[in-house]
Amino acid sequence: MELLCPAGNLPALKAAIENGADAVYIGLKDDTNARHFAGLNFTEKKLQEAVSFVHQHRRKLHIAINTFAHPDGYARWQRAVDMAAQLGADALILADLAMLEYAAERYPHIERHVSVQASATNEEAINFYHRHFDVARVVLPRVLSIHQVKQLARVTPVSLEVFAFGSLCIMSEGRCYLSSYLTGESPNTVGACSPARFVRWQQTPQGLESRLNEVLIDRYQDGENAGYPTLCKGRYLVDGERYHALEEPTSLNTLELLPELMAANIASVKIEGRQRSPAYVSQVAKVWRQAIDRCKADPQNFIPQSAWMETLGSMSEARRPPLARITVNAVRRAMKYSLGPVLWYWPKETLEDFYQQAATSSADVIYLGEAICSKRRATKVGDWLEMANRSPEVASRLCSPRWRWCRHPLNWAN
Q: Which BP terms in the Gene Ontology apply to this protein (predicted)?
């Protein structure tokens, strides 16, 4: 079983390899990948460095070119495939049918993996990709249950990859247009379903409100945890009752299911989070490396260590409730089996502070991660400067003189 870890930059890629990843997946610095964030992803020069580092350590590099080509931009997607192939990618993660055909014809020696964005959820869909494009692997959507994953593994000849840890999207990936309808920005190419410039947090007498393009998503009372400000994770009034009408915000952790995934011959477990910090990548990779090795050695007696679960809980989108194999889809709706135990929200103070500053900042890049912010309390600009003063190495990487957040001179002597 392969451990596949995310990387949004070179430090994260190196952290993944150094902490046990068998392979790393990355994206190019443009809208050909589904995590098209400012300050994230790889230029051609950085991609060359990434390929060199990964191959020196005898690991593999997967490159995601997994958005759908625009009518006037098809050539750009072709160039992305060409560059990835020519610089030494071990696998191309693709969703667009034309891109799959192009890669299969031009670079048949490079593995083609069907992206989660393609939403291949059944045997016939998987066989279609295998028959027409000779794909080596299919990444399954996160909405599938463990039972559905096992069923697909039994009937398809294609290797399967599942998301094992990280954020959980309740939609069938590649098929959600909620935020596009509301903001006019496509999640296919802008990299997020809640672009920061459309997000507003406002304190009112009724509580803290989250809005997306002025549409009220949720309202939180003091001490209540907040979810990401996306339409699908909001609470709405339906027939006079307020609840999560689509589904409660959840995150994914399948560590307890590792023996079942191994028994089903799942080829790869994937860690979500190309937008996350090197610290996140290193800690999550280390836990999963230890767990996979332990499970391989003795799958019958495998039990996740409490220290592993605590580490993963601290790396998730906030506090972890008691482990469970099921979660309520929504009030008055049927039970739904999740692939793994669910993890819950970020504290509202963290979200509020970040989005308020992000929306008004003139920063070119905003770095998130354990090195500069805390999930356990709201982190202010002054705190970041204080931490930067303590560490010249961290500050030199994270701060630029033109950033408003890091404009003040730093006293290295302290």
A: proteolysis; ubiquinone biosynthetic process
Scored b (16 or more CB within 10 A) or e, 310-348 reads: eebbebbbbebeeeeeebebbeeeeeeebbbbbbbbbbb
Give the Cα separation of 202 and 192 in Å (integer): 21
User: Do 287 and 142 fall within a single domain?
Assistant: yes
Could you read off the pLDDT of 17-56 as tens digits, one per residue?
999 999 999 999 988 988 877 778 899 999 999 999 999 9
Residue 102 lies in domain:
2-170+250-326
Distance CA 266, CA 146 (A): 11
Q: Is 387 helix (H, G, I), strand (E, B) or coil?
A: helix
Does residue 169 have a known ligand-binding role? yes
Looking at the structure, tell me whether residues 191 and 309 fall in a common domain: no
Final residue of a domain: which of 326, 346, 373? 326
Which of 218, 243, 268 is a domain's end point? Answer: 243
Q: What is the C-alpha to C-alpha distance for residues 106 and 110, in angstroms, rounded to an integer?
A: 9
pTM of the model: 0.74
Q: pLDDT by residue (tens digit) across 214-251?
A: 999 999 888 777 777 888 888 888 888 888 888 777 77
| Residue 176 annotated as lining a ligand binding site | yes
